[in-house]
Amino acid sequence: MGGAIFLLNMKEEKPVITIAFYNTENLFDTIDDPLINDAEFLPCSAKKWNSYRYAQKLNNISKVIAELGDKDGPEILGLCEVENENVLRELLKNPLLKNRGYEIVHFDSKDRRGIDVALIYKKKNFTLINKSTVPVQISEDKKINTRDILLVQGTLDKDTIFILVNHWPSRLSGQAKSEIKRIYAAKALRKTVDSIFKFSATDKIIVMGDFNDEPHNKSISEVLKAGSEDNCHNGCLINLFLSQQEKGRGTIKYKSHWNLIDQIMISEALFEGKSHRYIDHSADIYAPLWMHYKENNNNGPYRSFVGSKYYGGYSDHFPVYMHLEIK
Predict the structure, then answer these.
(1) How far is residue 174 from each of residues 134, 177, 180, 203, 215, measured CA to CA in Å?
(2) Lowest CB count within 10 Å: 17, 187, 188, 226, which one?
(3) Using one digit for the tens of pLDDT, what is the confidence trace for 274-289?
(4) What's the Cα-to-Cα distance from 53 to each of 42, 79, 95, rounded to whole Å?
(5) 65 contact partners, CB below 8 Å, separation of at least 6
(6) Backbone φ, ψ for residue 296 (5° rounding)
(7) How confident is the model at residue 10, as a pLDDT?
(8) Domain span at 260
(9) Model confidence at 228: pLDDT above 70
(10) What secondary structure, in 3-state letters, does 312-326 show?
(11) Of residues 146, 114, 104, 111, the one with CA closest to residue 29
């Protein structure tokens, strides 16, 4: 299958599909959009977001994607904190990515700053069937201005796959005070997962995103019902990043503490796919030394900004990924 990398062992070569997620930390263009509040990322802003800095950001994100998970990059990649489809198209024109055969799935969000979730995929590996959004509602009659959940249905060879890309409400007002918003996001996601399972308990589902909560938090462990493989039953999701949290690893560093808020979860059927199967222990955080600030893994991700101070790095998040074996 074109585009997939081959992992070597002593007996045979096995083709592998890489599935990944990356929060790009404000991938904005320099053009004023009157429909959103993008004033923070304009040439006249305190951040002085000009064409040079935007081009450097595109180069940096392209470099990460080009080798994320393996040497030919992911076959399917969920993204968040992208401003619009235009920045995605400019990203994929980068020399590191332009010959990879990526296609885009994107909808404009209701977020007041206009930061969206999206999916890119290699058309040689993944065939798009359907795409839609799932609104996040915090009460019976009121919607918050947050990102919708992106729902993508497609096929990997013989397997039909449902992919849900998330960017849940932040902890800006504090973890406890803002928790209710993420619980409502988890309810919206759980309802969608249940609707997929209603037609077939063997459907293959991949949930990915920046959840702004960790695997043990209520929104994920109780409301979404995402836990360990050993305790998976009755339509649960398996959180592939529980073991990374147990090791004390994280995807973002806040006040000297690692937080694991970027995760990938899968349905049990992906452990026994007809043509694709999750490779045990392949889920990981992509954090090579050059993505750390000053190449020191105690400093955290080498980010673009701290406040209005320009660092010129990649993102304040590390991406996450997993591998599927092609049988």
Answers:
(1) 25, 5, 11, 36, 18
(2) 187
(3) 678 999 999 999 999 9
(4) 11, 20, 17
(5) 22, 73, 74, 77, 91, 96, 97
(6) -130, 115
(7) 41
(8) 5-326
(9) yes
(10) CCCCCCCCEEEEEEE
(11) 114
Q: What is the pLDDT of residue 4?
A: 57
User: How many domains are there within the chain?
Assistant: 1
- For residue 53, give the amino acid letter: R
- The pLDDT-based confidence of 139 (bands split at 50, 70, 90) is low
Tally Cβ neighbours within 10 Å of residue 95.
Answer: 9
Residue 244's Cβ-side half-sphere holds a number of Cα atoms within 13 Å equal to 27
Whole-number Å distance between alpha carbons of 121 and 105: 8
Q: At what angle do helices 51-67 and 85-92 cross, to 10 degrees?
A: 70
In the structure encoding, which two tokens stand for residue 41, read together? 């990322």
CA–CA distances in Å: residue 318 to residues 3, 60, 61, 237, 263: 23, 13, 11, 22, 11
Q: 284: buried, middle or exposed (CB in 10 Å: 19+, 13-18, 0-12)? A: buried
- Residue 278 near residue 267, CB atoms below 8 Å: no
Q: How far apart are CA 4 and CA 194, in angstroms?
A: 31
In angstroms, the CA 78 to CA 80 distance is 7
**Which CATH number covers residue 242?**
3.60.10.10
CA dist., res. 186 & res. 7, Å (int): 35
- Can you give the C-alpha Rg of the chain in angstroms? 19
The three-state DSSP-derived secondary structure of the chain is CCCCEEEECCCCEEEEEEEEEEEEEEECCCCCCCCCCCHHHCCCCCCCCCHHHHHHHHHHHHHHHHHCCCCCCCCEEEEEEECCHHHHHHHHCCCCCCCCCEEEEECCCCCCCCCEEEEEEECCCEEEEEEEEECCECCCCCECCCCCEEEEEEEECCEEEEEEEEECCCCCCCHHHHHHHHHHHHHHHHHHHHHHHHHCCCCEEEEEEECCCCCCCHHHHHHCCEECHHHCCCCCEEECCHHHHHCCCCCEEECCEEECCEEEEEEHHHHCCCCEEECCCCCEECCCHHHEHHHCCCCCECCCEECCEECCCCCCCCCEEEEEEEC
